[in-house]
Amino acid sequence: MKDEAVRRARSRAARREPGKFAAGVMAVLMHVVFIGLLVFGVRWQSEQPDATVVDLWTELPAPKPIPKPEPVVQVKPQPKPEPVPEPKPEPEPAPEPDPPPPPEPEPVPEPEPTPPPEPKPAPKPEPTEAEILLKEKAEQARLEKIEIERKEKERIAVEKRRKDEFEKQAELKRQAEAKKQAELKRKEEAEKLAEVKRKAEAERKAEAEVKRKAEEEKRQLALAQEQKRLKEEQERKAREARETAEAARVQQERERATQAAAAQKRLIDEYIGRIRSQIRRYTTYPPDLVGTPQAEFTVTLLPSGEVLNVRLRKSSGNPAFDNAVERGIYKAQPLPLPSDPLLFASNFREFTLVFRPEN
What we know:
Layout: H1 2-16, H2 21-46, H3 50-59, H4 70-74, H5 129-281, E1 295-301, E2 307-314, H6 319-331, H7 341-347, E3 350-355
Antiparallel strand pairs: 1-2, 1-3
Helix pairs in contact: 5-6
């Protein structure tokens, strides 16, 4: 179908361009000669052993499973096969003269020149085995090329889909990561804001606590000062009361002591007088006593009034008088004493006795 379309196209071109028709005929003839030479060479090579033909057939199906065009290159056993596909539409003779179609309306009113008569077409040779093999091989190569192009397009499409999917996933991942980072940033900013608020609240509470403590300390200090003042006032009053009471007690004690001392002195003087009177009754003065001599004795008594010891502390200057008085002291025992043991112990256990004759 493709070759027929090419021939028809060339025929129409030849009819439309009469000046180029001869050149086309010459080209066709040259192709025919070239194909004849090629066929002659192929026939001469076909006289080789059949193994060569068998190898050619075995090599044809090999490129089918291979997606790349390399196997096509490997199946070129003939020298210079490149020009073979070019004359594919040309092995047939020139197209037979068809009845002229109805003239197409041309915009140009000038009449076309009458084309020269076409040469008689050469007889169409029968395709040889080599031509059939070459044509099949070319068709196989074309189909393989189409398959390779299809697979390549599929591969490119798959790669594109993979790339698009990869880019889509990467974009989704990037968006997710951006969203995650934005969320993290939002959380960090929220945490920072919360931390700032927390610190501000903590500072406010700390300041309030410091102020409260200062006021509490001030109040406690004022209360302590007031309590101290009241305590000092109470202590002062108590001290003054104690001092007043102590002064009164001391005064009373002093008065009582004075009274007791006066009473005790009177009692002591009374018993000293009684002791002198009793000693005088038992004292015999010397007959030659002149004047009023005075002797001082230390007398030690027992609680019973008995004389334990008599010692002359200060002589009167008259030994006879001193001796007479000492003898009278011993003779006058037991001497009269108060009944109070404390008074005896403090005043009469050992006392000083001053004695004169007139006493």
